[in-house]
Each structure stands twice: as structure tokens, then as C-alpha cells.
Amino acid sequence: MGIVLGPNSYGKAEVRLVHVDRVGDRHAVRDLDVGTALAGDLEATHLTGDNSRVLPTDSQKNTVYAFARRHGVGSPEAFALLLASHFVDSQEAVRQARVSVREHPWQRLGPHSFQRGGGEVRTADVSHDGARTQVVSGISGLVLMNTTNSEFHGYVRDEYTTLPETTDRILATAVDARWRHLDADADWDTAYGQVRSALVAAFVETYSRSLQQTLYEMGRRVLDTREDLAEIRLSLPNRHHLPVDLSPFGLDNPNRVFVATDRPYGLIEGTVCRDDAPPGTGDW
Amino acid sequence: MGIVLGPNSYGKAEVRLVHVDRVGDRHAVRDLDVGTALAGDLEATHLTGDNSRVLPTDSQKNTVYAFARRHGVGSPEAFALLLASHFVDSQEAVRQARVSVREHPWQRLGPHSFQRGGGEVRTADVSHDGARTQVVSGISGLVLMNTTNSEFHGYVRDEYTTLPETTDRILATAVDARWRHLDADADWDTAYGQVRSALVAAFVETYSRSLQQTLYEMGRRVLDTREDLAEIRLSLPNRHHLPVDLSPFGLDNPNRVFVATDRPYGLIEGTVCRDDAPPGTGDW
Amino acid sequence: MGIVLGPNSYGKAEVRLVHVDRVGDRHAVRDLDVGTALAGDLEATHLTGDNSRVLPTDSQKNTVYAFARRHGVGSPEAFALLLASHFVDSQEAVRQARVSVREHPWQRLGPHSFQRGGGEVRTADVSHDGARTQVVSGISGLVLMNTTNSEFHGYVRDEYTTLPETTDRILATAVDARWRHLDADADWDTAYGQVRSALVAAFVETYSRSLQQTLYEMGRRVLDTREDLAEIRLSLPNRHHLPVDLSPFGLDNPNRVFVATDRPYGLIEGTVCRDDAPPGTGDW
Amino acid sequence: MGIVLGPNSYGKAEVRLVHVDRVGDRHAVRDLDVGTALAGDLEATHLTGDNSRVLPTDSQKNTVYAFARRHGVGSPEAFALLLASHFVDSQEAVRQARVSVREHPWQRLGPHSFQRGGGEVRTADVSHDGARTQVVSGISGLVLMNTTNSEFHGYVRDEYTTLPETTDRILATAVDARWRHLDADADWDTAYGQVRSALVAAFVETYSRSLQQTLYEMGRRVLDTREDLAEIRLSLPNRHHLPVDLSPFGLDNPNRVFVATDRPYGLIEGTVCRDDAPPGTGDW
Q1: I want to staple C96 with a disulfide (CB 3.0 to 4.6 A). Which of A12, A149, B188, C129 is the partner?
Q2: What is the model's pTM?
């Protein structure tokens, strides 16, 4: 029985990059957090502190900025693909690179003026090992609410069940979704826009009997929209809005006054996938 | 020489209230955090724990919910005014009430579907002492950026100055503004919309030689827009975007690639006021 | 009637400074966030963008680091005093400087090894205008809990009161305290330790009939401990721990199982002062 | 080719539970966030909104509180084991339960008085599927710093490398560690204390040539300490402390004055394991 080094990686997290594209007087902005994680032949630095195969994380950060100048930032996915290939191709010790990008949207106010969008973040996670490339796109912080058309009843009642059934409640969630592409080539901005639209439309249009039903419908709608997607993983917190009991004050409350609670919250997680899609690689 | 009780208040903070107005199938949402702070004849509870003049903060919370049902939530300011008057009028020991409201905006997606807006928050702070009422409205979390039309040079150079002068930089800030109304009566939603538009327009349109200049122009524009405002206080963090030095990699960087830094940041704070406006009351 | 510039200031916020003092092999650490805010003859930059009287906030940041090297960091108060004097003395346009320091404690693990303390932060806020100097020390994030010896009853009951009275509850709070010194000279570390101890002891030892009573006792104890303090301001959120109703499951709950709630919370704020102390200057 | 439901689970997240154990006048406190996630035969609710096999997340929350009263909270691991078994044993549709506990430490100030510890959190993650049980313990938010005895040099230099080599730097990190037990039975509090001590001792005592070397040494030391551990996963952000260049001000800086940066940061992740340990189940 011995103690050994298992899976490992290293890189730079949260490299803040704002890229301004200038076409005459009209500017365009990409505001990104970039993370890199390299894996490979890295035993020596762990076991003896021999760094002769370690590309510093500082150099990885520099590469992000230099690549932004050299290649521009076409889309989060395209930028991540470039970086992932670079690290595997140029570093002998690196067998796999994962590059993750978080994009913060800005809305245009003028030719060179912008307002930062809210909590919504676009994500891209690329992994590349020389032979195989996997692209996962995503969104987080998209907070949606239906003030009706949501029911919840007919559930299991055990000895700890006190929840009253309802045929009309608020349904609210902060969408966190990741979808895996079958290919490493697409019009990424168009794809993102289509998936985002499908997620929102499915949430708005689904008459919901459980958040699970809404989750599945959101996933199904996305896969229907884009044939080049293998699967989508959704994590939907149930942001509970509880009707306040106003009867002690002689008042009714027909779904008008709610308290929005922070904790605890229901958390519904699920995957919707094509049954013939090849499996993905690694954790994402 | 004696030790005595000085200024004091108590109340409930962060009462989460979501109010749904239903006109037929079309719903409207107000999503608020409400805070109350009552002051008055409260020595006994401090000195001896005699609570006979203390209205529990739990009752204050209940009042918020009951008032939402009884009166609706017309606007943050109107709702705060109702509550502030109530506490002073109904509680013998209460000499002054401050009610603060933070509104989180939701954008409409359908008749009863909504998407939560970003970090932008609308604020209303009302104080009332029976005789006098003060209404302060505000906004926070409005993040704006100009990618050009900003300079910074001609400043003092002391022995600790190393900053290079620039005639073209990114100017970005998260606007935090509070404006004091001369009256306790207005079309609050319209007023808010006009002030917000003036703030944004002044930021976008001002060719800036310092963030102070932009601040003053924002304040001036707001007071020009609404004659019923006494003053506006602005707190503008300078969200520095620093051009990355790419020369070690043989690359130029004509304002294309920036690192957005978190800390430290410049913080510019200032008031713009009418010289004939009566002073406000208390801290806000 | 004209629109004019009112009170204003500018500076650098959240300058992160870690200072290591090395006495032989034994190191000592001071981990600070420093903020500066300068006020004075600053109309020109606001009205016309003329920066000829503006010392850049970047230079203020550099000064913080240079002073740490030149003078060391004796205590947050002493360091803030040095900086505040420097800006007023060296800059003709600066009439007043405020310097705020937040210190993050580290606990010693070895001669040059440390573990960062929790959420507790020590604060120092110095203002100086050439003639007068004010030193305010403080603490925030000190979270305390008594699991008994706290009652709450005998309060006002209005039509919105539903809270049950209790003779045994959990009392928990996150202490935020600021105390104003009469002088600008003291053994600051000793003073801080004494005040902190007095706050904790008063919280632990007070049999409480209201959080207000505990607040006053904490303040009184501090002023009793140090004769050189003019006043102390306390802001005490009531971190409610509510006994869970387990009766639906056939279980009693004699103060054993609680839910700790985030929002809303009671907020008790008050000042305890010497009746013969001169008033302080400005906001703090 | 069809669209199907893939892996899924649901549960309640962030159930806040404070349990007070009273032995005479001496109280003991356990302050937990509990999360549940159930998986099994849940297709119907996803596909049709039929909830007849869904135990509401509200009931799961109630179970947490009822179990705390019925069984007490011996340790995070023991409490999680009880809950995980309960859900699998009592719910026909549930094939697997994962229960995660985050414990916030409180330090004793008196028989029934406590101060909340800092950012350090103890974690326990239990999964149970009827046949097999896996227990993973952990810690997060343990922030450690060595002000010397850390070097970094001899690394790869590519065209983007500008980092200067150093033989004396600050090494600081926020330890996030998870260790998997071979058995589902142990003296969990003792085990936790031993692992925590080993992590701290290894960090303090290792003369470090890379954070990877420190990581491996921390893991090795833990596995040496407890034979009943299969593996440990460590995620160590490199909290960079950069010496400030004071040469523009005529000052040297022999590792005295540092700026602590927030972003970006190096992120070193690795597993140390026994080569003969059976593999774990699922993601953790």
C-alpha cells in the first residue's frame, strides 16, 4: 500500500479581460473572466518541487492578454478554443487544457457607451487533449418568474409533510444551464442566442405542475432548437415566494402579498440528452 | 460627568416583499426590501429592559405586509410615506420614523412572466417626525462605461506620483445617487424615470477630463430636469480599466486590451445642490 | 436660484496592504485595507475638468505603500494619523483628510506562519483638518450568541402584533461598534483590546430583557473602562434564532432546535456617551 | 434519435439548523447548513408533472429539524448518515440520497455564551444507495500564510513568461480539502481534528518550492495520519502577495510591503490517494 499522486491540474483563475473592438467610431466590448487549467506530466513539482515542466500561471495569464490582442475575442467559445489548443500544442508536459470563460454582457447606450447587464453571465468551457475537443456553453444568473400558471399537488405525504397543496403559486428560479456541443465548430453567438431564447420561452410558456416538469421542458426545447447539442444540464433553485398569512389582521391574501425567502430553497437538477449522443469527457 | 444614552433607533431591516397586482390576466410586480427605523421615547428599554413603549420589530414587519395588501404598492416613495406616517401617528412613543425601500426591477416577458433586472436598484428613503417629511430617492448599481472621450492629465505631481497622463482612457463607474425632493408629493415613478435618464445621458454625453467633472455634470443635469429637487449626492467609484502592457510580447496595445481591476479604486463623492434650497434633515 | 457644488471629496478606497515586520526569524503581520478621502479647494476639476489642484488617487495609493515602508505600521490608528497629516500638510488644496483603515487579524501558528482570523475586523477612522484631529476606532463582524438569559416581553401590542412573549430565547448579534477618542494619542493596541474585552464581557454577562438593554450595557461598560472615550455607537442586528414548531411531528422543542434566519432582522442602533464630552466632527 | 431524461436529483439546500444541547447549565451548540438531494424513480414528474412519487423538499426540510430533536446532532457526518438512510429506507421511489452538511464553528465564551469562528467551515457529504455508503469529510475557508520559506524558480519560460524568479516569497492559500473515508463508521470529531491538524502542520512545516509541493505534502501527511482514508482532494488558490516596487520613491523593499491581490489567482488542484483503495462513487 502506497500513497500516490492522483488527478491534478493547475492554472490561473479569474483573469479579467475587457477587449474593445474599434470599427471607426463604433466600439464593441467583450468583458470576460478567463480561467485556465493544465494537466499532464506534473509529478516532479508535486513530489520534489522541481518546476522544470511547469509553465507559470502568470505566463498563462499573459497569454490570455496577448491572444486577445493578436486574435481579438470573437466569442467566448472561440477564444477558449484558441487558448486550449495553444497550451496543449506548445507545452510538451501538458496533456490536457481546460479553459473556462465567463462573459458579462454590456448593453449599448451609444457608439462607445455601455451599461452593464445584470447578474446574467454567459459561460464557455472548453477542454482539449490534442485528440479530442469538447465545448460546453452555458448561462447562469438568469432569474425568471411566472406569477401564475404553476401548481404543486398530488405529492407523497409522509409523517413529516405539512406543506399545503396549491393550484396557483409563483414559480421563480435562477437558471443555471450548461449545454454540450457535438462539434467544436459553430456560430457560437447565434447558438447562444437561440438556446437562451428557447430556455426563456419554455419557462414562460409551460403550464407547470412541478419545477421538474418545467426543467425537462426547458431542456427538451433547447435540444429541439439545435440539433448539434448532445445534452443540457439544468440546475434550478426554487426561489420560494410564500403568500403571507394576513388573516390575523382581518385581511385575505389571494396571491397578492408574498415574502421572497433566501434559505432554504428547493434545488432541482437534471439532464436532458439525446439517447444516441456519444458521452462527454470529464467533469463539467 | 455622567454616562448617558444618546441618539438611538430600532426597527426591522430587509423585509422582503413581493407584491403582485392583477388586472385581469395582466400582472404587475413590485419587488421590495423594506426597512423601518423608529426613534422616540425609548430610554426605559435601554436602561432597565422595560419594553412597555416598544413596538416589536416583528409587528413593524407585519405592518409592511398588511399595508401592501390594504393599500397596494404604488411606488417605493408612496409606500414608504404611508408607513412612516403610520408609525408616528399610531405609536405615542415614536417621534420619528424612517422607512427605506429598495426596489429590484423586473422586466416583463409576458402577461404574467418576468425577468429580474441586473444589479440596478431603485431606492426611497422617507423620514417623518409628525411635522416634517423628507423624501429622498435614489439609484445604486447602475454600471456605466465610456470606452473613449475620457482624459486625465494636468494633475498635481508629488514625490509619490507615477501615474502616466492620458488623453484617451476607459471611464467606468457604478452610479450610486441620492436626490432629495423639496416636496413630499410627486409622480414618483415619472420623477425616477426622468432622473435616471438624465444621469445616463450626462454620463454618455460628457467629454470627461476627470470623473469629478462627469459627476458634477450628472448632478447639474438632474437638477435642471426636475425643479422640485433640492440636491443630489453622487458616489462614483472609478472602476479602473488599465491597458495591459503587451510590449514584452512584441505587441502594441492602442486601447484594445484592458484589465478590469477590483481593488483599489478611486472614489469620487460630491453633492450638487440649489443654493436657495432649505437644508435637509438628519443623515441620509 | 443657482445650481452649485456642495460638499465633496475624493480618494482611493480599499488599498490592500500587507506589512511584514521581521525581527530575526520572528515575523509579525499587519493586513490592512486603507482608504483615503481628501477635501478642499476642488471646484475647478468639478466645473471645468481643470486638474491642477488634484493629487491623483493613484498617488495616494503609492503614499500608503511608501509610508508603510518608511514608518512601519504600528497600529491602524497610528498609521492613519500619519497619512492624514501628510495629505493636509503637503497639499495646498487639501483642507481635510479622512483616512480609514480596516485590519484583518491573523493568528500566529509559528515564527513566520499565520492563520487568518474570521469575519472580525478592527477599524480606525481618522479625520484631520490641520487644526483638529479626530480618532474613531471600531470593530465589526464580531458575532456573539447567548443561548439563554434573554427574555422579551411586556412590549406594546398593536393590531399588527402577533409575536409571542418569551422568557427564554437565543440572543445573537454581529457587533458593529465605533468609539470616538477624546485625544489623538493613546496606546491604540491596548485600548482596542480593552474595549473589545469590555464589549464581549458585557454581552456575555448581561441578563437581557431587550437587545436595547444589552446595547446600552455594552456601551456603558466600554466608557467605564476607558476614560479617554467620548462616545460609542453600536449597531446590533438581532440575528433571530426561532424555535422550530415540531408539534406536527409529535415532538416538543424546549429550546433545542432553532432555525437561524437571514432576513428580515431587527436592527438596534444607539449611542452611549459622556454628557460632558465635546461633540465630534462630521460623519463617521 | 430521441430526447430523454438523464441523471437528475432534487432536494432542499441550505436548511439552517442551530441545535443547542443542554447539560445542566452548560450548553453546546451545533450550527449547520444541511442539504438533501434525492434521486430515483422520478421520470413522471419531469415528463408529465405527476408528483405521486415526489416527497416535497419542504418535507425533507422538516425531517432535518425533527431528526435534530429526535436524535441530536452528534457530528456532521453522523447526522448526515442518519438522514441519508432515512430517505432511502422510507421512500420507495428514492434509490440514492446525498446529504451535505456545512458546520460553522462557535468558540465557547462561557457556559452558554459563544463567539462565531471565522470563515472556516467543516463539511460532510454522505451518499447512500441502500447497498453502499460513502462518507466524505472536508474543510473550507482555512486561510494560511507563511511569510517566508517559499521559493519559486526553475520553471518553464515561454514567449509569454515575464515572471521573475524568487527564492523568498509569501505563500498564502485558502485551504479547500475533501477526504474520503474507507468506512462509514468512525469517531468523526476526532478524525476531523486530526486531519485539520495534519493539514495545518504540513503547510507550516513544508519548505516550499511550489504550491504543488505543499499540496502534495499536505495530502500525504493526512493519509499518513489516518489509515482509514482512501484519498484527499485539495484545491488551493494561490493568494498572491506581491512585493510593491518602491524604487520610484527611493525606497528598497526587502519583503516588507506587499499588495494582496484578489484576481487573478493561481489555482492548484490535486488528489493524493492510496494506490490500493477502492474507487469512490459519483461526484463529490
Answers
A1: C129
A2: 0.97
